[in-house]
Amino acid sequence: MEDSDSPETVVLSGTPSAESNESQESNPYAGAYQQPMMIQQSNDNAIYSMWLGIATWVCHITAGFVCFTGCLAPLTTIAGIVLGHMGFNASKEMNLGRTEAIAGLVLNYLSLAMYLVIVLFGAAILGGIGAGLV
After folding, report:
1. Considering only CA atoms, which of 76, 106, 102 is closest in space to residue 88?
2. Could you write out the DSSP letters of every residue in 80-99?
3. Rg (CA), the chain
C-alpha cells in the first residue's frame, strides 16, 4: 500500500470564533462568557400533596353520585399526608413550596379526622345496639 493514498493529518488548534473566522488563540474573548442556565426549582412533593388534598375532598363530595370515588378517598388521603410531610421537610431546605405543603397537610388531615369521627360514631352506635340502648 502506498503512502500517497492515506489521508492527510491536520492538527487544529482552538475553535473558530462566532464573530469571525479567527481561532480562539487570536481572539481570547470569543465565547469566553457563557450565560448561566437557570434551573427553576420546585417542591413537587408539596404540590402533589396539595392536589391530592383537593382530590380527596372532590372524592368525598362526589361519593354520593359516583360510588368508586368513596373508595379512592382513603388512598389519596394517606398519599397526601406522606407527600405533605416530605414536601414540608424539603421546604425547610429549599425555602420553596411551604404553603402548598401546609395546604396539603391541612386538607388531608381534615379528611383523616373525618374518617376517625365516622369510625368512632359507628362504633358508638354498634356498641349501643349491642347493649340494647338503641
Report:
1. 102
2. HHHHHHHHHHHHHHHS-SHH
3. 32
Average pLDDT for consecutive 10-residue bins of the chain (134 residues)? 64 56 56 68 91 94 86 93 95 90 96 93 86 71
Q: What pLDDT is attached to residue 127? A: 86
Residue 104: its pLDDT value, please?
Answer: 96
Largest CA distance in the chain: 111
Cell of 94: 429549599
In sequence order, the β-bridge partners of residue 23 are 16
Instruction: Write the CB contacts of 24 (distance below 8 Å, at least 6 apart in sequence).
Output: 14, 15, 16, 17, 30, 31
Residue recorded with cell 345496639? 129
